[in-house]
Each structure stands twice: as C-alpha cells, then as structure tokens.
Amino acid sequence: MSIAINTLLVNPLMLHVIDPLREALLSFGTLGMLIWIVLKILAIAVPVIIAVAFYVVWERKLIGWMHVRHGPMYVGWGVFQAFADVFKLLFKEVVQPTVAHPVLYRLAPMLALVPAFAAWAVVPFDAQVVLSNANAGLLYLLAMTSLGIYGVIIAGWASNSKYAFLGAMRASAQMISYEIAMGFSLVGVLIAAGSLNLTEIVMAQSGKGFLGWFWIPLAPLFVVYFVSGVAETNRSPFDVVEGESEIVAGHMVEYSGSQFALFFLAEYANMILVSFLTPIFFLGGWLSPIQGLVDFGNVHWLVNWIWQGGWPWLLAKAFFFASCFLWFRATFPRYRYDQIMRLGWKVFIPITIAWIFVTALLVYFGVIGGGATGAVA
After folding, report:
1. The pTM is what?
2. Measured on CA atoms in the order 158, 238, 344, 233, is the torsion positive or negative?
C-alpha cells in the first residue's frame, strides 16, 4: 500500500546529510553497500546501548526521589554511575558451574540479547527515518520479541540448577501468556490501520491531532498492550521470575560478570522497545498532538515539528512510558504467580478478543479508518 507523506515531516538532516552520504557510499558498489548497512545498524545499536546506561541512572534517580532520597550522586554527580557498573561487570570473573552445558550456557545470553536489538530494525523514528520500512514489519516485530523467550529457557536449563530451571519455567509461561495478549492487541491495531507497516500505522492516525490517535477507539487494547509489555519484560510488579525471596535471580542466578550484563542489557533494551512501540501503535508515533488541528505554516524545521510532528514527539512519548516502568516498580507490590497468570489468561485475552470484534465493527461502519491513507495536508 502506497503512502503519501508531507515532505515537511521529513527531517532535513536526512535530506541534506544522510541521503548524500548514502549515494556516495553506494557509488563504491558492494563494499559501499556493506559499509552503509553496518552504519545503519550502528546508528540504532549504539544509541540503544547508551540509552540503556542512562535509563539505569534515571531509574535510580527517579525511584530515589519517590522514596525521598538522593539516588546516585558521586560518580560524575551520578550521571556516570551506570558506566561504572558496566566496567565493574566487565572486569568481574565469569564463573561457570562445572555441571552446566558448556555450549548452551554461553549461547543463552546472546539468544536473549540479539532479538532485543534486531526488533529495532523496523521501528520508525520519523517519516522515512527507519532502518527497514518492511511491509510486514508488525509480523517481524512479533517474531523477534518472541525469540527472546528461548534465551531465558535455555539459560535456566543449561545452568543445571533447580533455582534457575524453576525461574526459566516461570518466565516461559509468563512471557508466552502475555505475548498472546500483546499479539491480540496488535490485531486490533492492524484492523484499524489496515496495514502491517509501522510507518503506515502511524500515518493512519494523522490528520485529527490526538483525537485521531488509536488510544480512543482502542483504549482497552492500549491498556492491555502496555501492561502486557511490563509483564513481558518481567518487570515489577510482574517480576516473580526473579523473586529474590523465592528463587533468588531466576534463570540468571548462575550467571556473573559480562554474561549477566548481557541479560541485563536485553531486559532494559526490551523495556525501551516497548516504550517506543506503545506510542507508535496507539499515540500517533512522531505525530504532534495538534497535527491537523493547528498549522502555522512552514516556518523553520527547528520549530515546525511542534505542530507538524517529528522525532522529538516520539522521544517525549517514549520517555513517559519508560518512566512508567520505574513508577510501577516504586509503587506496586509484587503479584503472586497465580494472580499474574489469571490476569493474563482470564482477563486480558478475553478483553482483547472481544475488542477485536468491536474494532472490526467500528471500521466496517466507518467510525475509524481501516486504511493508512496517510496524507498529511
């Protein structure tokens, strides 16, 4: 499905810097194409890794303020505390249990980390600013986020520890349960947008400001998706997988040093991913809340994004949801495992199935789109 996008929404940095660089590299043939692909991957992977480091600092500071304390304040005024933790983990000795499976034990952290980063390939940050604008981006996203479960299961089994294995079983059951609820939520988005392409899903919400976003007609799916994302990443209050009072650190209990850091990086990368995907699916992505309602013309790209949309809006929305992860941790007590499973199977899944039919009726009677017309006047 083709999509019309106003050129004013396209970042001038891409028009004047990135496109000429791409053409220059592609002029060198296959070697230039390989260099261009590597640069695009690094352009996403490096910021995500840096974002994880500062996300940890923000978690400690925000929860500290909620608990009426300072949080990190010594290592670079607290800003570089996460980097100190990284160096500590990298220089710690990696202790492997003698009875652990030698290959799978080392493979499990990579199986958890690689899908967490591969999913970013189809995430659009602005109009035409995406690594791969795949037409089946939504299916690719579901596939990548599901693969992370294998890293958790293999880590628990390969450790040859009862605590690790119990944590892996809990994790696999919980992640699969909430993966179903998340998938059904995205079926509603697919019906409303009429496309599997993430850019077209965003543009299907354009033209009416925040009133045209999917958070209104798909409100139950919006709530289910984000709460399921919290459970999918094993964060509080759904962190029984790593219940310290029960099974210590769950599937990661036998890991230390850099291998533990890989699991840590994958968890926080997934949290940031969910924080980006939630506004993309339900809150207009990079679109402005007043886009289509107010327009002051083409003034300058440094201010045009305020009413026409741009990546700063997506970052602001993602920052809010990323902070909600931390807010939940500081606020809610941990659920029992049976409560978590009941919420997923007996509450979320029936709600999503019912609202899929409601969404289909809304599209059929023309209440909401059903196709990514996407033209921004």
Report:
1. 0.89
2. negative
